[in-house]
Amino acid sequence: MSLQSGTEMIALSFVFNKATGLYGLLAILTGFHLSALQLSMYVYSVIALGIIAYCLPHIRKQTPFQNLAFAWLYIVDTVVNTAYTTVFAVSWYLASGKTGGPTPPESADTGVPLSSFMKAIDTTASTSFIVIFSLIRIYFVLVIMAYAQQVMVQYRDGRQQGWTGEDPELAGKPFAEGTPDGEGYKGKIGRAMLSVGRGYWLGGQKQDDEWAKNVRSKFRSHKVASA
């Protein structure tokens, strides 16, 4: 599987995931009560859904601005999603610990109250799932970043080969002021996105190139193994 195909599949799963935000907001119309935390999560999901809908068609077109934007969106969403998951998990744990009622019977095997034993199992299972999905999510981040880098490097190389401007240094600077792609809001946002990790996005560091190749080789190995 190529980086492009992998990125498209991840983007589609991202769309389905964020579509729940629409259903969450529609639930308000039925009188369903949402906490401030839930409401903020659903509003954020709808905003993220709009951004990915804008970027999705450009993955196959290898448009630099939209692919770089999707990479940053997925990075930010990973951090935000982790924060929401942590808050919800802590809230659930605290709420379950405050559950009242009569003292439950003890487990014959552990000698501890049965509810405490079951709570420990639930907590362990939930934590395991969170860790597993977090590792998968990090891998997806690496894939999307590698593809965005590939698109940006190809775009930069194409600019350098066909550059006709007065300042040759601008050829290697996508979204630079004074260039066609540096005009308007796209230019400003593009420069902001490149300002962090510029050496990686434009393939300026050898170790980053090797890292991207390793990600690609893993996808090829997975394809051979599943064939």
Automatic annotation (TrEMBL):
Chain intervals for the UniProt region annotation (Disordered): 164-183
Cell wall biogenesis/degradation in keyword set: no
Keywords in alphabetical order: Membrane, Transmembrane, Transmembrane helix
Regions crossing the membrane: 12-35, 41-59, 71-95, 125-148
Classification via Pfam families: Kei1
InterPro entries listed in its UniProt record: Kei1 (IPR013862)
Name under which the protein is recorded: Inositolphosphorylceramide synthase subunit Kei1-domain-containing protein
